[in-house]
Every structure is written in C-alpha cells, then in structure tokens.
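Fill in residues.
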C-alpha cells in the first residue's frame, strides 16, 4: 500500500518537526502558565524573604524613618506646633550662643576623642600582643563597656570631686603635692584682737607696725590655730631674747600666743606656748623691698641676716596664711570638657583595643618576620608595616567613634555640675534641653536633631562603604 508524504514522520523525511498547537505551552514556557521550576523557586524565595523582612522593615519605619520625617516637618513649626515658620528655627539655632557653644564643644569631641581612642587602642594592642596574659588584660579593659553610661557618669562625678576626702583623683594630686611641697601654712592664724604690733595687709600678709634695726629681737605672736592643725614637729617656743641678736641681723620667734588654761600673758612667750614651724619671715626695707628672708624652725625661731644699717619691717607673707592645696578643679569651666572626654576614653578604650587586637591577630606574620630579617627595628616595623596593614581596621574604629561622640549625651549630663553644664554642652544635650529640659520648644529642638542627623550621615555612609569594600 503506497505511503504518502503526509503520513511519513518528520524524522524519517529529514524535515523539521511541526510546531506545537497554540496554547500547548502556555505563556511562560513549555510547562504552561506556572513557568519553569527555577523561576517558581526564585519567586518563592523572594516571597519568603519579604515575609521575614516585613517585621524588621515595619520596626525600621516606625522607629527610624517616621521619627526622621516627623522631626524634619516639626522643625518648620514654632514651639506650639501650630504656626508654620519655615527655616526660622534653623536661623535662630545658629544665632543662639548656647547652640554655638554646643557646636564648638561637639567639634572638640570629634577632633580629639576618636583620635585619642584609636591611638590608645593601637598602642595597647601592640604592647599586649606578646604577653601571655593579654586575654585577661583585654577582658579587664573591656569591662567598662558592660557599665551603663549612667553608672560610669556617677563614678567619674565622684572621682572628679574637688574635696580630697571624696574625690579620688584630687586625693592623689594633693598627696603628691604635699610630699613635694612640704610647706605647711596656717590659714586660720591671725593677730590677737587689739594687738597693735602686727598690721594686716590687703594681700593677706602681716607685718610689724613699727620698724626695727639690726641687732634687735622681734617676737611675733599669733592666735586662731586649732590644736589639731598644729604640726607634729612643733616644739615649745624658744624666746629669742635669751640669745642676743648679732650685728646685721634680726632675730625672733613666731609662736602661738595662747597658753592652755589661760594663764599666759598676751604678747609674751610663756611656758607651754609652742612655736609655729616652717613659716616664711621677711625683712622689708623702707622702699618696700624684701632684702632678707628666713624660715622658722620647729620652735618658731628665725634669723634674718645680712642686713645693712637702717630700719626694717618684719613681715609674714600671705603664703603663710594661704589655704591648703585642694587639688585640681576637674569640674570647673576650664577642664570640664577634657574631664568628660577622659571618662569617655575609660569606657571605650577596651572596644578599640579588642577590635584592633583582632585585626592585629589576623595580620600575616611572615610579612613582619621578613621585615625583621631585612634589618628593620621594631619602630620601623610598627610604622611601615603594622600601621598600614591595620589601616582598614583603624579607619573603622575611628569613623565608628566619630559617629558615637556626635551622639554623646549621658556623660555630659551626669558629670557636669549645673553651674558649668553650659560650658560642657554638646549638640545632643542642647537638643534635649531645648525640647524637654526647660525650653519646651520642640520646633527648635527638632531643628537641632536634623542638624545632628546631617552631621552624622556622612560618617555613616563612609563606614558603610568601608564595610562593603572589606567584604568585596
């Protein structure tokens, strides 16, 4: 039976297969509308990822995006929030002296704190690299990170107290000062009421009302020194009249003109009265110039020698009655910002140390050994190899700290006392003070928040780029 060409299969005739009937594969391929299995899997993974990201996106929008948009809009309204003022809040912000001071202090923080932290962390990481107990040391340095800024602020507020009985730092400073400058003073000492021998000067000194010539004895009696403030080295006063003064000298004794029991006679050295040691005594000529000086001994005696013929006034200078050294005013206007930066360094140095130490541990050791074999000393290895190789890590630490110090608030608010808080003011604190701390102007506070955001964003972008560059 003859076979026609139309009945022969395409493979047999060598022709191309006939196209499938319309609608056999659908719109998305040979498996119908559902598409290929690969495409379906991609779409399923995207839906799953979107489902897991949705809670995070909602939180991000509610806690970040919405406050930013609201703050930008609120910054264009007045304190009541009812009247649109445009850019007036931004203009007022830069005309306010408190805001200008806050910007200046924030600039000081940005310039010094990140650089000090990065440098200190680098030095400590390199120094602790070769010691056995480096892990314990890093743990100790990192422990302040576990303390809240509130607790750290309270700790340093107490440590910075000027009273040496309370402030740890001033207790150390006063102890060192007193050991190096062993010159006791008697701030409560004064002339007896009605005493016509001593005259109180405007500068706090005491001098004799009458002049004396060389070869005379001049005894100076003071009162007002409590027994507990008398030095342990003080001995019974030795009347200088027992030993005649030589030619060209004035001699005498400075003593506490008070006899226990009240049996003494004012203006006379009585038995039981003690001398005042370590006091400066000066001879002043008629022109008001100090021509001789001496220091009283344990019994209060002194000798002013080398005097020419003439009349002299014996003087107890103001430093004899100066109050005792009370240390450094850490919380004063001049040092409040450096003091707070010091507290900040104490908290964050461990962070910088651990991060830089991790980068140092990952550094290829063969490069360092090759440099040492080529004759490089440790300083050259550190400067030419270690620092350049740690450049990305140092950059991340520095930029992270820049972002962090721009937002510092807790330490400044807690450590700085009320009278000097404006001297330590920063942008974050100023934003809070204007909005909630008495200013009640949330329009101006929102403008400060927008300014702070604009200053932080460039550092954040730089940090993100560094992270992406390190991962590529």
């Amino acid at each position: 039976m003859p076979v026609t060409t139309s009945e022969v299969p395409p493979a047999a005739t060598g022709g191309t297969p006939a196209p499938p009937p319309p609608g056999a594969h659908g719109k998305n391929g040979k498996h119908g509308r559902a598409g290929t299995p690969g495409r379906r899997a991609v779409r399923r993974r995207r839906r799953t990822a979107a489902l897991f990201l949705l809670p995070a996106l909602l939180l991000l929008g509610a806690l970040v995006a919405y406050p930013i948009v609201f703050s930008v809009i609120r910054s264009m309204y007045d304190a009541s929030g009812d009247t649109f003022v445009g850019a007036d809040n931004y203009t007022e912000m830069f005309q306010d002296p408190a805001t200008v001071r806050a910007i200046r202090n924030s600039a000081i923080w940005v310039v010094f704190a990140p650089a000090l932290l990065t440098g200190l962390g680098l030095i400590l990481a390199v120094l602790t690299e070769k010691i056995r107990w480096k892990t314990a040391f890093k743990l100790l340095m990192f422990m302040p990170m576990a303390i809240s800024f509130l607790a750290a602020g309270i700790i340093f507020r107490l440590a910075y107290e000027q009273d040496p009985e309370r402030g740890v730092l001033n207790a150390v400073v006063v102890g060192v000062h007193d050991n190096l400058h062993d010159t006791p003073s008697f701030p409560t000492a004064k002339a007896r009421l009605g005493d016509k021998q001593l005259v109180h000067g405007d500068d706090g000194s005491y001098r004799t009302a009458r002049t004396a010539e060389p070869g005379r004895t001049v005894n100076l009696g003071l009162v007002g020194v409590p027994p507990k403030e008398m030095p342990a080295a003080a001995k019974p006063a030795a009347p200088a009249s027992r030993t005649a003064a030589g030619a060209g000298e004035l001699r005498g004794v400075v003593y506490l003109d008070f006899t226990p029991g009240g049996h003494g006679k004012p203006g006379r050295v009585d038995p039981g009265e003690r001398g005042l040691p370590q006091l400066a005594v000066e001879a002043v000529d008629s022109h008001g110039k100090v021509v001789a000086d001496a220091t009283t001994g344990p019994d209060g005696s002194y000798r002013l020698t080398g005097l020419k013929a003439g009349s002299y006034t014996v003087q107890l200078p103001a430093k004899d009655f100066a109050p005792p050294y009370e240390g450094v005013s850490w919380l004063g206007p001049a040092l409040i910002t450096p003091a707070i930066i010091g507290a900040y360094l104490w908290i964050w140095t461990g962070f910088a140390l651990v991060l830089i130490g991790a980068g140092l541990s990952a550094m290829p050791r063969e490069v360092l050994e090759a440099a040492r074999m080529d004759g490089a000393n440790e300083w050259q290895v550190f400067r030419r190899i270690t620092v350049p190789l740690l450049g990305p890590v140092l950059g991340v630490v520095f930029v992270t700290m820049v972002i962090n110090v721009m937002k510092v608030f807790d330490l400044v608010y807690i450590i700085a006392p009320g009278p000097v808080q404006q001297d330590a003011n920063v942008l974050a604190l100023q934003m809070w003070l204007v909005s909630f701390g008495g200013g009640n102007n949330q329009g101006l506070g929102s403008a400060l928040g927008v300014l702070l955001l604009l200053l932080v964003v460039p550092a954040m972008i730089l940090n993100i780029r560094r992270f992406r560059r390190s991962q590529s």
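The chain has two domains: 88-171+330-471, 198-321.
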